[in-house]
Amino acid sequence: MLRNLLPRLRATAAAAAVPRVASASPHFFYGSAASNPPPHRTSVEHLGDDDEGDDSGGAPRPSPASTISIDRSGLCNPPEHSHVASSDSELVKHLKGIIKFRGGPISVAEYMEEVLTNPKAGFYMNRDVFGGGGDFVTSPEVSQMFGEMIGIWTMCVWEQMGQPKRVNLVELGPGRGTLMADLLRGSSKFKHFTQSLNIHMVECSPTLRKIQHQTLKCIDEESVQKGKVSSLSGSPVSWHSTLDEVPSGVPTIIIAHEFYDALPVHQFQRTPRGWCEKMVDIQEDSSFRFVLSPHPTPATLYLMKRFKWAAGEEVSELNHVEICPEAIDLTQAIAKRVGSDGGGALIIDYGLNKLVSDSLQAIRKHKFVNILDDPGSADLSAYVDFTAIRHSAEEVSGDVSVHGPITQSQLLGALGINFRVEALLENCSEEQAESLRTGYWRLVGDGEAPFWEGPDEQVPMGMGTRYLAMAIVKKSQGVPVPFT
User: Fold this and answer.
1) What is the pLDDT of residues 100-129, one digit of tens each?
2) Which one-letter DSSP state was computed for residue 408?
3) Exposed e or buried b per residue across 348-358, where buried means at least 16 C-beta atoms within 10 angstroms of its C-beta
4) Which of 84, 154, 191, 347 is the most exposed place for a label (fewest CB within 10 A)?
5) Where are the strands (E) in 353-437, listed by range?
6) Which domain of life is it from (predicted)?
């Protein structure tokens, strides 16, 4: 763990001598005082230079003739210490330890990364968080049709590549493995396609890896290097912690469904002195709070990079901005691989095709909760900046083309989900039909389902327009379906 912290410590070493950052407050200070912040935002206060203490070096040094007195009274009156065991979780203790060791706050991105992927107590690391019994439901968990449609898209890209005999099919953040399992089942009749696949699951959670192994019905196979084959398709399956670990030099198709939204974001707030990064610190009562950095941080470089991709009026309208350096870096890694090896990537997530303001949220048991409340017990996610994805890919490789975003409803509709649901409805019970209609609406609908007759609190909500899809493909392959 210390090895992982060293780069962060070196990056912030220069800040060790600066005054402490300003404390949290329910008021904002803007360059213009014309408007108040929306009520749902988490507010922090940023003090000016005059409020941060004297930078002149402190009191004058005593002359050689001065006498030095030492107050030893504290030796007989040690501070009160409680022997009651702390109620803090291991993750909370770990976060507080990092902040205290640094002598200052950590970025929201660092907080988010620890909360989600800390090896011992991260939200994703040691539990099954998906489905009705988990904390949130993803599209593959809603209906088998989602994975089947993604399978059609994958086969279309394979066709455009000229049906290569070997393809790396990579899924980033596969969850339970439901999407991949439905993809393989749906394409099982197309033997030339499934026989070309080498499946690579990029997953850092040991718990989810075990579930994915079961979902894909993996069996041991001595003829395969890593010994795992999915009995759904006969394709070899291997697991990796990062995309970099997936072998290169082979045409590659990458699926990233609800992966980008969990990448750590840095949050910035406009102040009289400019854009200041929002940080996480400890209050006097030992709870967490938001504060603002009084000086530029390393992430400011990414902020300036993102502003270059935005129109001036777009920046001027915002008082808060979120950026995701890891999304930029990941996209560039994807674009380089697709550009050199061929293939394509499909990114599906909820987000915006413009600068993202203040979207970070925490979800526990399907309900929104405070971001700083009991870290590690709730999922943290933020809107995906699809404009940044586009520019990141185009900037790093001239051999790729970027298409979209289009809505999830447009993507699935063009891939044939309407025909698929009609075919399924012909041979099912009434109960199955209701489930199919509900799942269909949640995938492609907008807002509440008009056909719902059950309890109001259970009305299906459509994700069709809230989720966007973007494709990155090798330019020589042409335009991918259905981004024409």
Assistant:
1) 988 889 999 999 999 988 887 777 766 554
2) H
3) bbbbeeebbbb
4) 84
5) 361-364, 367-369, 379-381, 384-385, 400-407
6) Eukaryota
- Distance separating alpha carbons of residues 467 and 439, to the nearest angstrom: 15
> Within 34-117, where are the H helices?
73-76, 90-102, 108-117
Residue 355, sorted as left (phi over 0), alpha (psi -120 to 50) or beta, turns out to be: beta
Closest by Cα among 256, 243, 266 to 138: 256
Is residue 255 in a domain?
A: yes
> Is residue 42 in a domain?
no
Average pLDDT over residues 61-75: 42
Distance from C-alpha of 25 to C-alpha of 266, rounded to nearest angstrom: 20
N-terminal to C-terminal alpha carbon distance within the chain? 47
Residue 361, Cβ density class (10 Å: 0-12 exposed, 13-18 middle, ≥19 buried): middle
DSSP 43: P
Q: pLDDT tens digits for 16-29?
A: 333 334 433 333 33
Global pTM value: 0.79
Instruction: Output the pLDDT for position 81.
Output: 42
CATH number for the domain harbouring residue 256: 3.40.50.12710
Determine, yes or no, domain membership for 330. yes
DSSP string covering 154-193, please? HHHHHHHTT--S-EEEEEES-TTSHHHHHHHHHTTT-HHH
Contact 150, 482 (CB under 8 A): no
Quote the tokens at residue 326.
């890891």
Residue 302: which domain range? 89-450+457-484
Question: What is the rounded CA–CA span in Å between residue 339 and residue 249?
Answer: 11
Please say if the pLDDT value at position 157 is more than 60: yes
Tokens of 447: 């807002």
